[in-house]
Design a protein that fits this description.
Shape: globular
Number of strands: 19
Helix content: 25-40%
Structural class: alpha/beta
Radius of gyration: 28 Å
Strand order of the largest sheet: 8-7-6-3-15-16
Number of helices: 12
Amino acid sequence: MPNELGPRGLSRTRAYGAYEVMVEHRILHSSDWHLGVSTGTVSRLQEQRLFFEWLRDTLTAEQIDTLVVAGDIFDTMQPSAEAQNVYYRFLARVGETGIRQVVIVGGNHDSPTRLDASGPILGALSVHVVGGYTDPGRMVIPLYSRGSDEVTAVCLAVPYMHEYRLGVRTTLMDTSDAKKQFKDAFGGLYRELVDTAEKDYPGVPVIATGHLTLGSKVDKDDYPQEIHQVGTIDAMSTDIIDPRIAYTALGHIHRSFPVQKDRGIWYSGTPVPYSLKESESQRVVLSVTVGAELDVKALPVPLRRTLVEIRGTRDVVVERLRTLQWEEDLPPLVHVFIETDHVEVSLTHSLHEALSEHPELARPALVEVKQGRSAEAIEAALSETQSFDLGKLTTTEVFQLLCQSEGKSEEATERLTQSFELIRLADDAALQALIPESKRVSANTTEAEVSA
């Protein structure tokens, strides 16, 4: 009997003799690998290799049909040879897991041409790469399940695309008009691709990718940089995703969460924590079953290395570095904040000396050192600060108050003020030179003369 569509095009059946069984397609959604990224001076490739080892085992254990990677494969557009080696070695062996195909799209960190260059070779391994915006026909990819030669799903492989490529021009445009242009352009692209998929592969569920900022649950801590003019329009609306799409695998945001759960729109987040903020939440990949119902399951990625923040006085921090303990495979990466009223020039040496008490091959790495006043000290200083009418103070007096609020000594404030005056006077002289002589304002000009 012919295949039949269920709710939202998710359900397919196939006849085997007198029995009718449900056909499901299983994908594993990941994104934002950022291969080759470093924290401070420490490369994260070792953790990324361990992630790939775990991922291979997971693809087998979960009986995944398709691995979908939603952009930012590399951390830079010119990745190191070592980072590329890790990438290609993983893809060369991924077929051993029994997976039928891999779909990879480029992100804003990737070079579209670099990713696409390997397409013909990787295609022989059933690895489909769409680095950048291309012929829509290349972006519609038929998917096969384990043990089946029938198309059981279709993937719309949409990479990161700057809005300019879709004809969006936001210059001198207000927010509402910009939002409408984005919705029309990106929504039109997804609609066109779904139309093509339904025409070429009727009766199968459609999944899609996207590398963009989408929905109302995103804040600035969730992404490393703005794309698609999000500084102007916040994030794009989920209205751009065609309702005929069963599942949308998103990248760019480094946290895993559903943008719109009832419509199957999800971010997977980074598989490895690359910042202190990311280390606050469990890293996952998403196992997605497209069948009679859409089922999304988060699979926790084992943590191989912790990111640690140590705050306190110099003595407190040094002691904690000496006694630092961990259970993960790799020694932690340490961010240090020293609470002090003055800069200690020899501080870094003291911190490294404390770390040297750990064995060399299992020694935590110092990736960031900051010095400053504690939040409590700043709050106390502000509470003691008098109220001033800034309109009655000179520029120099305001600068001196700023130095005092930062805990600078009288001697340091005096030196800084002298430097500030030299810069200010130089800027004033340069500014005066740009003003016609008849309009120049001297230091002795009165307010009435300026008004006149």
